[in-house]
Automatic annotation (TrEMBL):
This protein's UniProt keywords: Membrane, Transmembrane, Transmembrane helix
This protein's name: Metallophosphoesterase
GO molecular function annotation: hydrolase activity
Superkingdom, natural source: Bacteria
Organism expressing this protein natively: Yeguia hominis
InterPro entries in the record: Calcineurin-like_PHP, Metallo-depent_PP-like, Metallophosphoesterase_sf
Membrane-traversing stretches: 73-96, 116-133
Lineage, highest ranks first: Bacteria, Bacillati, Bacillota, Clostridia, Eubacteriales
Domain Calcineurin-like phosphoesterase: 157-338
Length: 403
């Protein structure tokens, strides 16, 4: 439904972009024939990626459809910055026209169009090129956390947190290997994957058997655990938005990839790890698995011994007050991508209690990662793909009262 509602908006935005591009071409001194050929060529070159989202949706699963899906994802990122730059250019042009007032003529207008268009084109290439390159890097972020409980035979715990891997059109085997290598280099005691392992379509995964083999390379004494997120379902997408509504089900073939890799998938389950701490994995709050209802926080943690540390994997950083009340000490989340593309990292701030980083909620700590992968275009601008190392220090509760 969302895709249908946004389709006219998408068409209008592309018409706006094409009109501005053609105005730029018209500002150059070309012959009538050359101008027509140039404009026609630009329209065709623009239309090819512009129709790729609809084409990727309509085509049956195949190698060709996979490549169209990759092009579609990349195009949407480029279109975002193209529209942003055009809006800035239009605003600047309006200000310049007001400045010149009566001295505004065709020659000055064409000169402004040529220079402004060239500047926008250069900026678009630079920003998008950087975004594609930067998305291939994985940074490591340290997050020290104190838990005011004792853990048997354990003074501290090193947790490697990753989320939003989004294996599909934009994240493939090479990025998967980078994730595994980066995580293992941190020598974690425990590895946690906080949802959105996949990107909605099993057919979009580059090589499922090879992906499972790569993920089996995670190494930690207490193992690797995961919960699912809102994208870990099988559904058709148009330009990244859900299309069709009903029939969204958890994909058993996706489950098999994790099982074969030795990754423990938790669906509203709580396990006691080596008799030392509890780890709970929640169903996603918007697509809980998908037919079952998600347990509330109190029911989920009703059987834990609150004298031991309680960790929760919850893809979306919500329901924090309820989790704190239910006895959670540490909640590990993702989902927000920290906005992924600037200025998204600024715009998400008012909409999330903890959009990124660390938030203290009473005695409970919420840690949110920007994710190790990407949603949609394989681009990162103003944010990072990351592995978060959560350094948990266990402290006797008496120290909290005196300290």
């Amino acid at each position: 439904m969302v895709a249908l509602l946004l389709s006219p908006v998408y068409i209008l935005l592309n018409v706006y972009a094409v009109r501005r591009i053609l105005q730029w071409v018209s500002a150059f001194p070309l012959s009538a024939a050359a101008g027509r050929w140039c404009k026609g060529l630009l329209i065709v070159l623009y239309a090819l990626p512009a129709v790729s989202p609809a084409l990727a949706y309509a085509l049956p699963a195949s190698a060709f459809q996979w490549w169209v899906g990759r092009i579609s994802a990349a195009w949407l990122g480029c279109l975002f910055y193209l529209l942003l730059l055009l809006a800035v250019a239009d605003g600047s042009a309006w200000g310049i026209r007001r400045h010149f007032r009566g001295r505004w003529d065709a020659a000055r207008k064409n000169r402004l169009l040529r220079r402004g268009g060239a500047l926008c084109a250069a900026a678009l290439i630079a920003v998008c090129g950087y975004g594609f390159w930067h998305a291939q890097e994985i940074t490591v972020v340290q997050r020290p956390v104190s838990v005011w409980k004792t853990c048997p035979a354990q003074k501290s715990l090193r947790i490697a947190l990753i989320s939003d891997l989004h294996f599909g059109y934009s994240v493939g085997l090479r990025q998967a290997q980078r994730m595994v290598d980066t995580v293992n280099a941190q020598n974690p005691d425990l590895i946690c994957i906080a949802g959105d392992v996949f990107d909605n379509a099993y057919s979009a995964i580059e090589d499922p058997a090879r992906l499972s083999e790569i993920l089996s390379g995670f190494r930690s004494p207490y193992g690797t655990y995961a919960c699912y997120g809102n994208h870990d379902v099988s559904e058709r997408l148009l330009a990244g938005f859900s299309f069709g509504g009903a029939g969204k089900v958890s994909e058993q073939r996706m489950d098999a990839i994790l099982t074969d890799a030795g990754i423990h998938l938790l669906r509203d389950e709580t396990v006691l790890v080596d008799g030392k701490f509890y780890l709970s994995g929640r169903r996603d709050r918007t697509k809980p698995g998908v037919s079952e209802e998600r347990l509330d926080a109190e029911t989920l943690l009703s059987g834990v011994d609150r004298n031991l540390p309680v960790f929760v994997l919850d893809h979306q950083p919500a329901d924090l007050a309820a989790l704190a009340q239910a006895g959670a000490d540490l909640v590990l989340s993702g989902h927000t991508h920290n906005g992924q593309l600037f200025p998204g990292n600024l715009l998400i701030q008012p909409f999330c209690e903890n959009p990124y980083g660390v938030l203290q909620k009473g005695e409970m700590t919420s840690v949110v990662t920007s994710g190790a992968g990407v949603w949609g275009p394989a681009m990162r601008v103003g944010t990072n793909c990351e592995v978060v190392v959560v350094e948990v220090s266990f402290l006797p509760s008496g120290l909290q009262a005196t300290g």
